[in-house]
Amino acid sequence: MTRVYDLAVIGAGPAGVAGALEASLAGLDVVVIDAAPRPGGQYHRHLPGSFHALRPGALHHGLERFMRQWEALRSRAEILLGHRVWAVERTGGDAAGGTAGAAMGAAAGAGDTADAGDTVDGTVGATTDATVTVRCLAGDREERPRAVRARALLIATGAHDRPLPFPGWDLPGVLTAGGAQALLKGSLVVAGRRVVVSGTGPFLLPVAAGLARAGADVRGVYEAGGRFGLARHPLLAAGKAAEAAGYAAVLARHRVPYRGRHAVVAAHGEDALTHVTVARLDADWRPVATRTVACDTLACGYGFVPQLELPVQLGCATRRDADGTPVVAVDAGRRTSVPGVYAAGETTGVGGAELAEAEGRLAGRAVAADRGRRVPPLPALARRVDRLTAFARALHEAYPVRPGWRDWLRDDTLVCRCEEVPLSAVREARRLGATDARSVKLLARPGMGWCQGRMCGYAVACLAGEDPAAPRRPIAQPVRLGDLAGLEHPPSEG
Amino acid sequence: MRPPYELVGARPDPAFEISVDGRPVPVVPGQSVGAALHAAGVRSWRSTRFGGRPRGLFCGIGVCFDCLVTVNDVPALRACVTEARPGDRVRTSAADSGTAAARAGAGKDTAGKSVAGAGRPGAAGKEPGGESGGDDEGVNGR
């Protein structure tokens, strides 16, 4: 008989680890699942032990704290690293059904109930006799299927970079800001020799500072939204002064220019990046003057996209975050609209690692309380979440993506990298009558390739004239057809 | 010692080699195939189906699938999340073809297409002849 855990946590980043630790300290039998070979998620991505780093925290804020939590968790919970989750199903209780087919049906219908409201009523049934089956593939090459069952589920799957398209953005040498950061934090690889950083949001600062400290010649940081110079950066005004000042000092020491209301609007080169066009932007991000900067690497990012495949599969209600991004709707205990399913971290609204950790703790405590454990109230934790949430909202408001980026595109600019769909094809689809992103996708195929719209979904939605919808992906991770076909006879654990 | 190594005080285990189109590329144990290639100055290792455009790392965290690569004859692995192992044979410049689509397909559309073997015309034209065996292997689920 398969073991049934009290709680399965998907994601071993700040939210997942904090939640799992709280739940296990309260006496629950917890399993933590993550696709990566090491814990940390994107923010606390760190070097493998084989690097024998004496100061692994030199590249991170708060890594030591996270690793202490991880060490505490390791002895108390089952840990499944290198396990990619491709589907979750809920069975028993008041669940809709127990097969993958039902899970897919729920995913297809979930879009209709999206945006159900800003908050979920706290009285939503939290205890349930339903169980959740988490379907994973273990290993980065061999891919052994494995199913994990639990009575409650905490979704802490985080977010990925949100790129914007521009001419040449598919040239080798153009990376997402998170990709450049991942190379450094996870492999000690400096993304390039001469690097330009562009995009919007506070994340550009640690990326640029990290690259400069690691020896890259950072030719400039171009913040599309910043109507403030670095000296008046919103981070400084929001209780993160020390952190922001640290980045500013690094950039100053390495003589890295920081330009607000500037952005890279085109990348150039034959087979690899050789230079970029940097534009001064008006308030709506339309270019008003351009110049050329030579570089071999560009790191760019315009915020983050929460990874919502699994909550959408389960039918969890979503809401719009301050910037229009779909996120999972939760109550104060991080309970989703589906009984027994909780969410924390970026999936419930992008707000950074500190907020994610605090939300994870709230979730872990709520799961334990809902499962009958004695959990004393911790009002300071709730207040901390409120304060950090307000800060996150302020940052969203300080760094909106403005519509003028559309003017960066030419007819032949690829909007969808996978299916190589140029802007002209998207426009043609609109001329044929497509008035929403889904119709554009059906006519012109953007978002139908390998990444399933994870990279272009935001841009395609904007070009179709709507806010991006929550993703409907019945399969959250690529899976071999044989594994899909075998679903009627679920693989035994192990 | 290079700056990032000084920064964190790293004294890594001895490097090993992988072969990239027959050329040796050093790997610090624990690095992904993509990180090792990027560090060695190899910025692209795949051509797109339609435009034949070069692609390498983009998202770097396993989301965008631009960095697909063939390792030890296993096609369509994401280089950025595949940890390199001593002796790995990496083959680049493989056209992103039906082979790649067959192995997975993050959605019904792609999966259905590969089952039916109905790749788009542009893809079929670019597909190296020897790839079809791997295609079937992928579909039948190893």
What does this molecule look like?
The complex is a heterodimer of chains A (about 500) and B (about 140). With about 500 residues, chain A is α/β, with parallel strands linked by helices. Chain A has 13 helices and 21 strands. Chain A has 3 domains: about 5-160 and about 305-395, FAD/NAD(P)-binding domain; about 165-300, FAD/NAD(P)-binding domain (3-Layer(bba) Sandwich); about 405-465, Arc Repressor Mutant, subunit A, CATH 1.10.10.1100. In chain A, the strands form 6 sheets. In chain A, strands 1, 2, 3, 4, 5, 6 and 19 form a 7-stranded mixed sheet that branches. A 5-stranded parallel sheet of chain A has the order 8-15-9-10-11. In chain A, helix 1 packs parallel to helix 8, helix 4 crosses helix 5 and helix 8 (about 355-370) runs antiparallel to helix 9. Mean pLDDT of chain A is about 90; it is low at about 95-125 and about 490-494. With about 140 residues, chain B is of the alpha/beta class. Chain B has a single domain, classed as Ubiquitin-like (UB roll) (Roll), CATH 3.10.20.440. In chain B, the strands form 2 sheets. Chain B has a 5-stranded mixed sheet with strand order 2-1-7-5-6. In chain B, strands 4-3-8 form a 3-stranded mixed sheet, with no helix packed on it. Chain B is globular. In chain B, about 55% of the residues are buried. Chains A and B meet through strand 8, helix 4 and helix 13 of A and helix 1, helix 2, strand 4, helix 3 and helix 4 of B.
Protein topology:
The complex is a heterodimer of chains A (about 500) and B (about 140).
Chain A: E1 4-10, H1 14-25, E2 30-33, H2 63-74, E3 78-80, E4 83-91, H3 100-113, E5 131-138, E6 144-155, E7 159-161, E8 174-176, H4 177-187, E9 194-199, H5 204-213, E10 217-223, H6 241-253, E11 258-260, E12 262-268, E13 275-281, E14 287-294, E15 297-301, E16 304-306, H7 309-313, E17 318-320, E18 326-328, E19 341-343, H8 353-370, H9 379-398, E20 414-416, E21 421-422, H10 423-431, H11 437-444, H12 457-463, H13 481-485
Parallel strand pairs in A: 1-2, 1-6, 2-3, 6-19, 8-15, 9-10, 9-15, 10-11
Antiparallel strand pairs in A: 4-5, 5-6, 7-16, 12-13, 13-14, 17-18, 20-21
Chain B: H1 3-8, E1 16-20, E2 23-27, H2 33-39, E3 46-47, E4 54-55, E5 68-71, E6 74-78, E7 89-91, E8 94-95, H3 98-103, H4 108-116, H5 121-126, H6 132-140
Parallel strand pairs in B: 1-7, 3-8
Antiparallel strand pairs in B: 1-2, 3-4, 5-6, 5-7
